């Protein structure tokens, strides 16, 4: 009976961990989604404002500043990838919610520590996979690492004398 109590305690702890992770992912996903949406809205509004000011003969410096906003937002959005990050968080939440459902509704009774450990192991594998995806898609080094550098054939180029 002690094994059954231990398995129930582990299941409850893992279920709480999964539920917390799902809530956190959904919160981060919503933040990234609404940030992306807000930036697109500001981009459209500033573009329309710049066009209207141009037709109305507005101040050139102010008009130039407003006209720069869409370009700056496009640069920010393409580098920060808010929509892609939102999708990543939603996928992770969905994966962890699936593991939580399996833990609560699909593990045979009486529950065993081995069954809880198997789901915990799948949670860790899912986290590792998602973290690798994040690092390969969203890290700042990703852009730099994809640069094509000239080949040196193993030699170090010498600096010109002078």
List keywords for this structure.
162 residues; mainly alpha; elongated
Spans where pLDDT lies below 50 across 5 or more residues: none
Q: Please describe the biggest sheet, giving its number of strands, its sense, and whether it closes into a barrel.
A: none
Number of helical segments with 4 or more residues = 5
How would the global form be characterised?
elongated
Quote the distance from N terminus to C terminus.
83 Å
Question: What helical percentage do the residues reach?
Answer: over 70%
Number of strands: 0
Structural class based on helices, strands and sheet pairing = mainly alpha
Please tell me how large the radius of gyration is: 25 Å
The ordered H/E elements are HHHHH
Overall pLDDT: 87
Task: Report the sheet-strand fraction.
Answer: under 5%
Q: Can you characterise this structure?
A:
The protein has helices at residues 2-56, 60-80, 82-106, 113-138, 140-145. Helix 1 (2-56) runs antiparallel to helix 2 (60-80) and helix 1 packs antiparallel against helix 3. It has five helices and no strands. The chain is elongated, with a radius of gyration of 25 Å. The model has no long low-confidence stretch (mean pLDDT 87). The protein is mostly helical and 162 residues long.
SSE diagram, text form:
Layout: H1 2-56, H2 60-80, H3 82-106, H4 113-138, H5 140-145
Helix pairs in contact: 1-2, 1-3, 1-4, 3-4
Summarize the structure.
The protein is mainly α and 162 residues long. The protein is built from five helices and no strands.
